[in-house]
Design brief:
The complex is a heterodimer of chains A (655) and B (822).
Chain A: H1 26-43, H2 53-66, H3 80-93, H4 97-114, H5 119-122, H6 124-135, H7 138-145, H8 149-169, H9 173-189, H10 192-219, H11 224-237, H12 240-255, H13 265-277, H14 291-299, H15 301-316, H16 322-340, H17 350-367, H18 381-391, H19 394-422, H20 428-437, H21 442-469, H22 471-500, E1 510-512, H23 515-530, E2 539-542, H24 554-558, E3 566-568, E4 579-583, E5 596-607, H25 617-623, E6 631-641, H26 642-645
Parallel strand pairs in A: 2-3, 2-4
Antiparallel strand pairs in A: 1-5, 4-6, 5-6
Chain B: H1 2-34, H2 46-63, H3 71-91, H4 98-129, H5 138-150, H6 171-183, H7 187-217, H8 223-238, H9 243-253, H10 258-264, H11 317-323, H12 328-331, H13 333-348, H14 355-364, H15 368-372, H16 376-395, H17 402-422, H18 424-429, E1 437-439, H19 447-475, E2 476-477, H20 480-507, H21 509-522, H22 525-538, H23 540-557, E3 560-561, H24 568-585, E4 590-592, H25 600-628, H26 632-649, H27 651-664, H28 675-678, H29 682-695, E5 702-703, H30 716-721, H31 730-737, H32 740-745, H33 748-757, H34 761-771, E6 775-778, H35 780-785, H36 789-797, E7 799-804, E8 807-811, H37 814-818
Parallel strand pairs in B: 5-6
Antiparallel strand pairs in B: 1-4, 2-3, 6-8, 7-8
Classes of the chains: A mainly alpha (655), B mainly alpha (822).
Chain lengths: 655, 822
């Protein structure tokens, strides 16, 4: 019995004396959610779309290193990180579209995770935004789902930027080692483009120093020469020996698989050769001029706008930092290089996407900061504080309205695109006449009018909102609304590019047709019958570079586990063989020396975007289709000898 | 026409210049740090140094399996060398005052660059007009380049012996292949550009060595140094021996009597020509070839040895480039000169060679093992001699202590061990045709021949040595004792070697029997011995002159100074002269035994080295005499001698180029690509290129006709494409592989003969199956050599591929091999 009765409120609380074992923060939860979502977006249905020629070439190179009996002659790999990622995936999980692209998933997630390195400098919010923009960017998403080697380069570049920043502040050996690792990965292990990207970064760094020297007297009240001296001093303090050793070490160990695969150094050599030849040799024969800019305009336009507008916004608020200037320079120099680098691929637009994401993250963070500077009737700071506390919700309302308006406008934009596509004429005058007068195109006229009206309405609404709640709130709301719209539509764009509409997107100008999966299934079924499921079918494939059948690309990948398959260079070698795969153009007047049954399979479609009618660009951008046929196809025919087709037992067949 | 050619093929020339320049750029940081003994810090030698180091790294990584043979691998090797070079630049504490350096050297560097461009472009123009790839052993050289370009891994396969790798020193061909891979040219274009590039590299190297020698003596020498450098270039790559002015011109123009030619007694020029002419168009075909056949071996009765006897060859660089064979001794030329430059640096650096120096020397100078093994004798001796000389200069007393001798020996051992270690992978698989030393009893060099061969340098160096002797005597006590002792040792060693080898030969029954038969032919030992003695005495002037030269050099090198210690520069020039004399002296006593069993190769390789050594020394000697001789009269006389030497030695190049370009090649197209003109039949050429496109990078074996060596029609498809053929030139395969050839490939020639001659398909199928042949070539050569019935079986059983006129390639299929003859 208690001697001194106490009230409940006087009792000690349950958890006051217990040790804190685990605390879940909202930030951690947010990241978990983000990464789970990002993983799902990357992994979902990743094996539905067949590997493209470029993907298949890389995958086959890794596959052949594990299975030398595989038919075909692999092309030299030029990205050691991609090569080893695929090799490891094949060893553990077998060879498939999924495992071939798994490395890209990892690289994509890694890119988002690397944003956390900057948390100490950027703060929680900005880092989160940066990570979101890296993970859910249409270009990073597409690159991730197609295991583009440029993604590894982007990861290494981000790591290099972080290490360099750390070295500037504290020239520790550990950071020097990280820098060396990042540089080795970027220049020698991520592919030919990595070395070019390193040159971009170095050039941008030089330009940043020059820019900072110009700003130094006004911004920091120090002479330019002092800044230069400081840069020299910091450079001298770095342990360059550690950097070099780390670069050499990581290059050697990764490319050779810790010396278990010495020939892996050839990949580094090929990477250098690719970097050099890319200046005059296009990556794809059907790539249009300034192809990377086509990619940016198609998939990343909103993010480009965010980056540009974001930087202007930050500059007007005088909150730009040195890192923002560096990001701008990287984006500009990358754009310049991509304009002249003939070997530029879609994935290389990451060079622009990543720095723009940096700026956009800063901009979004600033958009969260409420200001009432434009409300002249608020005299004191207390007035402003009270006002903002009462009206903080305004920006979200404006954002919602902006999102709705943009969504509606996008619907009408799609309708406009449909309308343009409905008129099949190259005559501009006739096109205008039909668009304006034809009754069937009423929805086009309706949408066109509404689009213009919505645009004007949006402007008027914006002005009205600014007059009531101030321009700061208006820009915040508009910015958030635009970001939300860009985020959703961008995700959709990235998904479409690699999944839903992969066959008519320009992310890959030579998309592999789904017939190839049917081809593989057909071969498997014949194997089931002939060789009891063992892949011993003696398939003979006629090589034809102009028809897209090579010994190192898509067809080699499709036949990767058929050790008895052969690639031959003349038709005579294919005569009288049991199973023959020939390019379709060979079918005319074909004599294989016996009776055969053939089935056609489309291997790939080449999208001749450079042949696109300028008038239809609007329609294509909106609908991803055109009236005219802008495709050329690589078709093949699988020929089965009659006895094979009829299922004659193997022992009774002709040799 | 020249502009049209340049518009068409100029980009090849530019790309090769760029690649060579970038190779030099990779090692520039290394040169600036390690070659601090040279006035220009080795910048002018950067190109050959860069090429040899990059090739070494590339070859080593390929041999170890880290790289494959492609352009990317070459780029990576370049990157590795550049990285190491940069690392050394930033870590070694030998700072450079940049402004002062540029002020002092800019004129020389610009002159060197202009000289290089002029030499390269100039000889490329020559090659465009004379792109012969068919004569002498050019097909062999082309085959090596094609083979290496086509090999995905190392060691590279031998395209003239399917299934085997190259058994020859192929480092030079590898360098040519590397250039071709990076610039994406065919092997036939690379062949021509290699000659032009190596011509320029050798010329630039000579320029660099001598200007550094001059600058080491007179630091502010500019135009004098340039003049001496240009002279060195002329002496090395443009000058000829005196066979042309003293024998060939009189012969071709019909002047001179029998006594005159009998005095010189050179091969095929013992009597006046029946009808002489002053028009070069009417001269003998390939008259310029005789300049390399000055030395002649005689019977003991005085007559010239019969035509089947392999007479000595005495090439010199201008002849080599005119002829256009891309042989190892030509490929090694710039790198031998580079070795001279590195030796000079060792001497002038003023410090003991450290580990970085040793590694550099082993990689760069040790490469001569792999380029042309013979060359290690001269250039390694100069390098090791430079170390001894450095110690001598440091002592300053004209003597070496035991410590110095030990130190020099240690340097030599470490350097040699490192060199062998670096190139051990080559040595491991290399089979030399050398089979020991043979005593030279009856063929010492006839002095008029020696004079014809080395007259330019005998005159120039003779004057230099005489004047130098006078100067040294004024300031030092000549050390005749040391000189005489060493000479006596050398001569004694020579005689001793002779006796030992004679005794050894006497113990060999086969040699003893042959010797006895020869002696009996002369009438017994009583007759033979006096003849031998008379031969040695009548031909003694060469030996005596060389011994005297060596004596004088040694006496001056080891002279005890009365006032100041001797400078290193004079010592280096004397060292080079002395080494040249020593090397020229060796064949007077012994020569290397090979398949020819004569001194043909020993004279060939040794005299080539002597030419380079004496050419460089002469250029410096000219500078020294004209700038340091006290008396104006002496300088004037010497200048006249120089003019005479140039006047007699340069016309060969002029007339030779004219003959090659205008007289011989007037019908051919101006192009660097000698592929088409290699073959008699254009259809064969098209067939070969078609096969090359068809096979691509896949492994394949072909078979084509084979018979004689030195005939471009045999092994032609393999030569052009690099695709291995069953057998190319058997004669050469026997030389390269020695006694092992019979063991593993001895029956191939007969099998090829049967394959084409026998009308039965069973015979052919058996041979094709046994060797794994994929393609049978049947073109112009096969059609002219074998009976037409031989092709019928191919027509009936194989499918024709790449058909051009009557030239076709048959593809061998598994079906065909299994099928019985119809």
């Amino acid at each position: 019995m208690l001697m001194n009765p106490v009230s409940v409120s006087q009792l000690p609380s349950d958890n006051s004396s217990l040790p804190v074992l685990f605390a879940v923060r909202a930030e951690a939860m947010a990241y978990v959610l983000l990464f789970v979502l990002a993983l799902l977006l990357r992994v979902a249905m990743i094996d539905v779309v067949p590997l493209s020629e470029a993907e298949a070439t890389r995958a086959y190179s890794a596959w052949h290193s594990l299975h030398p009996n595989s038919p075909g002659v692999p092309a030299p790999a030029d990205s050691a990180l991609t090569f080893w990622a695929q090799r490891l995936a094949f060893v553990t999980l077998g060879g498939s579209e999924f495992t071939a692209r798994l490395g890209g998933v990892v690289a994509g997630l890694l890119l988002g995770a690397l944003a956390l390195l900057f948390r100490g400098r950027l703060g929680v919010t900005r880092t989160l935004f940066f990570s979101v923009l890296l993970l859910f960017n249409p270009i990073t998403l597409a690159a991730s789902r197609t295991h583009d080697p440029a993604l590894w380069g982007a990861c290494c570049a981000l790591l290099a930027a972080w290490s360099a920043w750390q070295l500037w502040d504290t020239a520790t050996r550990a950071h020097a080692v990280w820098l060396g690792i990042a540089l080795g990965g970027l220049a020698f292990l991520s592919g030919g483009a990595g070395l070019v990207y390193l040159l971009v970064l170095l050039l941008a760094s030089g330009m940043l120093l020059w820019w900072s020297m110009r700003k130094a007297p006004l911004a920091w009240d120090i002479p330019a020469s002092r800044l230069l001296a400081l840069a020299h001093e910091r450079a001298r303090a770095v342990s360059w020996r550690a950097v070099v050793l780390a670069t050499v070490g990581v290059t050697l160990f990764v490319s050779t698989g810790m010396m278990f695969y010495p020939t892996g150094l050839t990949i580094v050599a090929q990477s250098l050769a690719s970097a050099l030849t890319g200046w005059w040799q296009p990556a794809s024969p059907t790539a249009p001029a300034f192809y990377p800019f086509w990619i940016l305009a198609t998939y990343h336009l909103a993010f480009v706008l965010m980056g540009v507008v974001g930087y202007v916004f930050l500059a007007r608020r005088s909150v730009t930092q040195t890192s923002d200037r560096f990001a701008v320079l990287v984006a500009l120099v990358s754009g310049g290089v991509l304009a002249v680098y003939q070997g530029a691929t879609a994935g290389m637009t990451l060079w622009v996407a990543v720095p723009l994401a940096w700026i956009a993250a800063h901009w979004l963070t600033e958009l969260l900061v409420d200001r009432a500077d434009s409300l002249y009737w608020l005299i004191t700071n207390d007035d402003r504080r009270r006002y903002l506390a009462a009206h903080g919700w305004v920006k979200w309302l404006i954002a919602l309205v902006a999102l709705v308006l943009l969504a509606v406008m996008s619907f009408h934009w799609q309708a406009i695109g449909r309308g343009v596509l409905l008129v099949n004429t190259a005559d501009y005058a006739l096109l205008a006449e039909r668009l304006i007068g034809e009754p069937a195109l009423a929805s086009f006229r309706y949408s066109a009018v509404w689009f213009v009206v919505m645009a004007i309405f949006s402007v008027l609404l914006g002005l009205l909102a600014a007059s009531v709640w101030g321009s700061d709130a208006m820009w915040q709301g508009l910015g958030w609304g635009f970001f939300a719209f860009a985020f959703v539509s961008g995700l959709g764009g990235g998904w479409n590019a690699t999944q839903t509409q992969a066959y008519s997107e320009i992310w890959d100008l030579a998309t592999t047709h789904q017939d190839t999966q049917m081809l593989r299934r057909t071969l498997y079924e014949v194997s089931m019958r002939d060789t009891r499921g063992n892949p011993d079918l003696p398939v003979v494939v006629l090589l034809s570079e102009e028809d897209g059948i090579t010994a190192h690309g898509l067809v080699a990948w499709l036949l990767r586990d058929y050790p008895n398959a052969r690639f031959v260079s003349t038709l005579a070698d294919a005569r009288r063989q049991q199973v023959v795969l020939l390019p379709r153009p060979q079918a005319q007047g074909l004599d294989l020396g016996g009776s055969y049954v053939g089935q056609s399979f489309r291997l790939r479609s080449h999208y001749r975007i450079d042949a696109l009618d300028p008038l239809r660009v609007m329609g294509w951008l909106a609908q991803r289709r055109t009236l005219r046929e802008y495709f050329t196809h690589d078709d093949s025919i699988l020929w089965l000898r009659m006895d094979v087709y009829d299922g004659v037992p193997v022992s009774q067949r002709l040799p | 026409m020249l502009m049209e050619w340049f518009a068409r093929e100029g980009h090849w020339v530019l790309s090769w210049w760029l690649v060579a320049t970038l190779a030099g750029a990779a090692v520039l940081p290394l040169c600036l740090r390690l070659l601090n003994g040279l006035a220009d810090r080795g910048v002018l030698l950067a190109r050959p140094l860069g090429i040899v180091l990059i090739a070494f790294v590339y070859w080593l990584l390929n041999m170890l399996g880290f790289l494959q043979n492609n352009a990317g691998g070459v780029l990576l090797a370049w990157g590795i060398v550049a990285a190491i070079s940069s690392y050394l630049f930033f870590t070694l504490p030998r700072p450079l005052a940049w402004r002062q350096y540029w002020r002092e050297n800019r004129l020389l560097l610009i002159a060197g660059e202009l000289l290089f461009i002029a030499l390269f472009v100039g000889w490329a123009i020559f090659r465009a007009h004379q792109h012969d790839t068919a004569s002498t052993e050019k097909p062999m050289d082309l085959m090596f380049i094609s083979s290496i370009m086509r090999s995905q891994t190392f060691p590279p396969h031998d395209a003239w012996l399917a299934g085997y790798t190259i058994s020859y020193y192929y480092f030079g061909y590898l360098m040519a292949a590397m250039f071709a891979l990076v610039t994406h040219v065919s092997s036939t274009v690379a062949f021509s550009l290699t000659l032009a590039m190596w011509f320029a590299l050798a010329g630039l190297g000579a320029f660099a060595v001598v200007i550094n020698l001059v600058r080491a003596q007179v630091n502010n020498a500019r135009w004098g140094a340039i003049g001496a450098g240009v002279l060195a270039t002329v002496f090395v790559v443009l000058l000829s021996n005196f066979q042309f002015p003293l024998v060939e011109v009189p012969y071709q123009t019909g002047i001179g009597d029998t006594a005159y030619y009998d005095f010189w007694r050179t091969q095929q020029r013992v009597e006046p020509r029946a009808q002489g002419s002053s028009d070069p168009h009417r001269w003998d075909y390939w008259w310029w070839f005789r300049a390399s056949r000055v030395l002649t071996d005689f019977e003991l009765n005085g007559s010239i040895k019969p035509s089947w006897y392999a007479q000595p060859i005495d090439e010199f660089p201008q002849f080599s480039f005119l002829l256009g064979d891309v042989h190892p001794h030509v490929m090694a030329l710039p790198f031998g000169i580079l070795a001279m430059g590195l030796a000079l640096n060792l001497l002038l650096a003023g410090r003991k060679p450290d580990r970085y120096d040793l590694v550099l020397y082993a990689a760069a100078v040790g490469a001569l093992i792999f380029l042309n093994t013979w060359d290690i004798l001269a250039y390694w001796t100069v390098l090791i001699g430079a170390e001894g000389l450095r110690r001598l200069v440091v002592r300053g007393r004209g003597t070496l202590a035991w410590e110095d001798i030990g130190g020099t020996a240690a340097f030599a051992v470490v350097f040699a061990l490192l060199s062998f270690a670096f190139y051990s992978l080559f040595l491991y698989s290399f089979r030399s045709q050398a089979a020991g030393l043979v005593p030279n009893i009856d063929q010492p060099t006839y002095f008029p021949h020696f004079f014809l061969m080395f007259a330019p340098f005998l005159l120039l160096l003779g004057g230099y040595l005489v004047l130098k002797l006078q100067v040294v005597r004024r300031n030092a006590d000549l050390n005749w004792l040391v000189g005489g002792t060493i000479i006596a040792l050398v001569l004694g060693l020579g005689l001793f070697s002779l006796l030992v080898l004679v005794l050894r030969s006497a113990l060999d029954p086969s040699i003893a029997t042959a010797a006895e038969a020869a002696v009996n032919e002369l009438g017994g030992w009583g007759q033979a011995l006096p003849l031998l003695l008379a031969r040695r005495l009548s031909h003694a002037p060469t030996t005596v002159l060389l011994a005297l030269c060596l004596l004088v050099v040694l006496a001056m090198v080891f002279a005890r100074p009365r006032q100041m210690p001797p400078g290193p520069v004079q010592g280096f020039a004397l060292l080079v002269v002395g080494v040249g004399a020593l090397i020229a002296l060796i064949p007077e006593f012994v020569y290397l035994a090979d398949v020819f069993r004569t001194r043909i190769n020993t004279i060939f390789k040794f005299y080539y080295m002597v030419w380079v050594l004496w050419a460089l020394a002469s250029a410096y000697g000219v500078y020294w005499v004209l700038s340091h001789a006290r008396s104006a009269a002496t300088r004037a006389v010497y200048a006249i001698v120089v003019v005479v030497v140039l006047a007699l030695g340069l016309p060969y190049a002029v007339f030779g180029v004219y003959a090659r370009v205008v007289v011989e090649a007037r019908q051919t197209e101006v192009t660097l690509d000698g592929g088409v003109s290699m073959l008699f039949s254009r259809e064969d050429y098209l067939m070969a290129r078609c096969l090359q496109a068809h096979v691509g990078s896949r492994q394949a074996v072909i078979v084509e006709a084979t018979r004689d060596a030195y005939n471009p029609q045999y092994g032609r498809v393999a030569t052009l494409t690099g695709i291995p053929t069953l057998l190319g030139w058997e004669n050469h395969q026997r030389q390269w592989r020695g006694v092992l050839y019979n063991a593993f490939a001895g029956g191939r020639a007969q099998d090829v003969e049967r394959l084409y001659s026998d009308a039965r398909w069973e015979t052919a199928a058996d041979i094709l199956q046994r060797y794994g042949v994929d393609y049978v070539v049947y073109g112009w050569t096969e059609r002219n050599q074998y009976p037409p019935t031989g092709e019928t079986k191919f027509l009936d059983n194989l499918e024709a591929l790449c058909e051009f006129g009557g030239s076709r390639v048959y593809r061998v299929t598994a079906d065909a091999l299994a099928r019985l003859a119809r």
